[in-house]
Amino acid sequence: MLSGLLKNFLDRTCPVWPRLEGKKVAGLAVAEEGVGQAIQNFKTYASLCKMHWVGSVTALAKNPGEVALNKNLKRRLNRLAQRLLL
């Protein structure tokens, strides 16, 4: 199952797919109970566009602002950002 927002993003980027080849990409997902297939769907999209997948970060949160308090998440996001920049 694909979320409507992700489907809309994928559809709207079709015209630029050739320009995405070789670019680095990472996945981020926040959900209340589980990220489900979100990261896998985005990873498949990256593969179709021949992009270089560098990783992903996921988090669970039930309330607004809850993710911002997660110090472990900040560390994981920093590591992912470093992989995108190298």
Any chance you could write out the topology, listing elements then pairs?
Elements (H helix, E strand, L loop, with lengths): L3 H9 L4 H4 L3 E8 L6 H11 L3 E9 L10 H15 L1
Parallel strand pairs: 1-2
How many domain units?
A: 1
Question: So what's the overall shape?
Answer: globular
Side by side, the strands of the main sheet go 1-2
Helix proportion = 40-55%
Which structural class best describes the helix and strand composition? Answer: alpha+beta
How many alpha or pi helices? 4
Overall pLDDT: 90
- What is the oligomeric state here? single chain
Unreliable sequence segments: none
Cα separation of the termini:
33 Å
Main sheet attributes: strand count, strand direction, barrel closure: 2 strands, parallel
The count of β-strands is 2
Strand content: 15-25%
Order of secondary-structure elements = HHEHEH
Based on CA atoms alone, the radius of gyration comes out at 14 Å
What does this structure look like?
By secondary structure, the protein is an alpha+beta fold. It has one domain. The protein is 45% helix and 20% strand. The protein contains 4 helices and 2 strands, in the order ααβαβα. The chain has helices spanning 4-12, 17-20, 38-48, 71-85; strands spanning 24-31, 52-60. It has a two-stranded parallel sheet.
